[in-house]
Amino acid sequence: MDLYATVTISGEVKYPGVYTIKKGETLSDLIERAGGYTDRASLPGAIFTRESVRESQRRSIDEMVQRLERELYTASAAGTASSLTSEDAKLVEMETSKKRRMLDVLRQTRATGRVVIRLEDPPTLLKKTPTTFFLRKETASTYHARPRQSTWQGTC
Questions:
Q1: pTM
Q2: Residue 151 has pLDDT above 70, yes or no
């Protein structure tokens, strides 16, 4: 860990900002230093990210796209070769075109680096859970606000 490793905590904590962390510091320590949650915080809506997780997700997406491209090429070539009529060939081409569009969508997928965590209120309760979440330089946390009012649309 770097001498001056930092993490960012934003959203519904009392003192959001960039914090210097020490080796062995935990998420509960950081939340306490940030003054705890505000009364508007929605703990189930917390977003916790790590750059290393984002990079791993990105690699997985890239590998999946490459594997699917190979499979698409193989299936397309086999389908075209086994087409008995021009209509069969058109159907194979239409199917291949749809799969290519799906691959284009997958290529645009952005990895988030999100790590699913369960937070406790007050943050000191996190220290009593069997899972201790240690911080690293790459960590970022966001706590979303709980909606002030519910909205319902429709008819009863």
A1: 0.64
A2: no
